[in-house]
Amino acid sequence: MQQNEWHKVTLLMNQAPDMAEFAISEIISIFSLYDISHTKLFEDHYEQVPEIKDIKSSDFPTYPFIETKIPNIDFRDKILERAILTHDVLYFISRSEDLDNLHINLEEQSLQYINNPNITCKVEVISSGRRLVQEERVQILNQVFGKLQCPNKIDLSNPDITYYILLTHKNQYVLGYSFQKKYKKRERNFARHYELPNRIYLGPVSLAHDLAFLMVNQAQVKENDFVLDPFAGTGSSLVACAHYGALCFGAEIDGFLLQGHCIGQLNVKSTFYKEELIGQKPYVNLNFKQYNLEIPSLIRTDVNSRNYSPFADGFFDAIICDPPYGIRASIQQDVQDKTASRTLIYKRMFEISRRLLRKGGRLVFLYPIWKQTKDQLQNEDGFKLIDSKEQTLADKRSRLLVTMLRQ
Description:
By secondary structure, the chain is α/β, with parallel strands linked by helices. Helices cover 21% and strands 26% of the residues. The chain contains ten helices and 16 strands. The strands form three sheets. Strands 2-1-3-7-6-4-5 form a seven-stranded mixed beta sheet. A seven-stranded mixed beta sheet has the order 12-10-9-13-14-16-15. The chain has a two-stranded antiparallel sheet with strand order 8-11. The longest helix is centred in the middle third of the chain and has 15 residues, at 134-148.
């Protein structure tokens, strides 16, 4: 496989219906981080690629399997080092409407492996439409590889290469492969290292670890970036930023939460819990010490105050937040048009971000709405709306993951 060629691949995306739109947003943002536009990413799927905010998972008949191209063989690892909702990147072999023809018109880049008797392999069958019993998996495997006549030796524990037979909900079949030895195999979701059930210090509501990493990817946070969370809480978003080497700053109105009085508590089920912590006041910094991350700069202040000015203008590369009057609080509603009204704290969030965020920096936040609300968000003064994707929640509520660019 040549290093300097574009390679056709299949992205294995998250199958959960409530995360599908977020998965599309994330992969667009990660490719953009490495200077690959969404038009290049999806050029084979549209006659004219729409704006990012208008791209939906339903546009892809084979979702959660999406075909695209990557510029070199190392780019796969760059994706998987960051992606939360893309589980793997497979090099493409072939696609067909039925299993009998899946061995025809094989991608040339794959032949050097399929026809090599000196490498070991295993085969996995993945279905997005229905659950397959083991007998069905074996039948599909034999039907495809019997016609391929692949001379690879079987090694189920540590193969050189893993082949995947993908069955889409539209009854299409995709054949792909990934390397096991040549490229380090990551955990199914590396961010599980940071999951909340094992977090040492928790508040009454802490941002879920996977959502925090997803927001960081939307903000395209990288090493040595200056990042602010004006509603820091127990630091969940800043933990994800610090993972990528960002310099983290946070503000929180609740001093008790920052310093471990009353409202915050130690998680005795955490593997980081030690006897020497018994009797001590828990505090936010413990969450960073747990993962050996750089301690953030935190201040106790009310961002809704007009006197809020602790930072220099244009100082930050990204602002990431889940405002406290967001999805966890009541949603103001205009009874006549049934749309969610923006609370004062969101208006204040934009005022702060206009001043503190550099031009070209990203503002990423969660925004509560009623389900299927139309005309949810438009460009804000000083910002361009890059993306806005909806996640349905319980009852009649939803929330938007919003990404804006400072202009």
